[in-house]
Amino acid sequence: MMKVIIIGCSRLGAMLATSLAGAGHEISVIDPKAEALERLPHDFPGQVFQGVGIDLELLAKAGADTADALIAVTDRDSANLVTAQVAREKFHIPRVIARAYDPRAAEAYRAMGLDIFCPTTFGIDYVMGRLGGAE
Domains in the chain and their CATH numbers? Predict the structure, then answer.
């Protein structure tokens, strides 16, 4: 079992939280918007916190000191980058993954040693593959 903190309760964040909790992991979710946190099922077994993912006290309350992983999936690339850096540098969380919509930002963040995924790049790769690598 892993202890995972998810920053951002978008559709992706909520589904990740639900899937990981269903797989037996201990999950904490942080989002500044109460309505976003309502995306979680009523019987969600994890912890839920309203606030921002760079709040050191809130991260500590969510278990960052002992977390195995943190996933930053807010709707802002810059927020995800800062959160990932805080998780790695202040709390020494072993696995930190962040989303970046901007492919250029994703490359820059990777150059900093961060584990970044880019839905935009995934989408482009998928469409190009489906079109046979359209030239």
Answer: 3-130 (3.40.50.720)
